[in-house]
Amino acid sequence: MAQTRFAAVTAEGSLYRNTRQGRARVVQYGLWAAALAVALSAVALAWLGPAGDALALVILAPILAVMALGMELYRSLYVTEIRALPGGLLVETLGFRGRRRHLLPWAALHRATAPERRYPARGAWSFAVILRRPGGRLPFIIDTTRDDFDAAGLAKLARRRARRPD
Questions:
Q1: pLDDT digits (tens, 9 = 90+) for 92-137
Q2: Which of 79, 103, 85 minimizes the C-alpha distance to 3?
Q3: Is 20 helix (H, G, I), strand (E, B) or coil?
Q4: Residue 96 burial (CB count, 10 A)
Q5: Coil, strand or helix at 147
């Protein structure tokens, strides 16, 4: 089976498994909780106190909501696991609750991965690989800061499977 020739196959058969996905969940739920708390505080303060005191909270609540919506977009592209199946590459991303699965056909994965890039984050460097989705505008984000991912091995596997499907 071609999966066993891939350089970084886990014991469960995954090509990649993200161990840092809990951080994305904390930020996702934290932003929604903050936006809700600020909005409720603005309503309570307007009801209990002078109307002008709640103005700052009324301005801050939509800003937090926009940030939460941005995090929703990010988590929908944030890869938690990649598996090789006979029909294509199964990519799991975070859903609002749980996970979402996307099956990418082998034939559509021509030049799908980009080289690993470094991104500055709070004085340290984070590493990521992007996986272009066939027909999608935004690519999947594969966080390789702590988890190994062999982009070159995936490209070879995709070329081999596209030529000779199982």
A1: 998 888 889 999 888 777 666 666 677 776 666 777 787 888 777 8
A2: 85
A3: coil
A4: 11
A5: coil
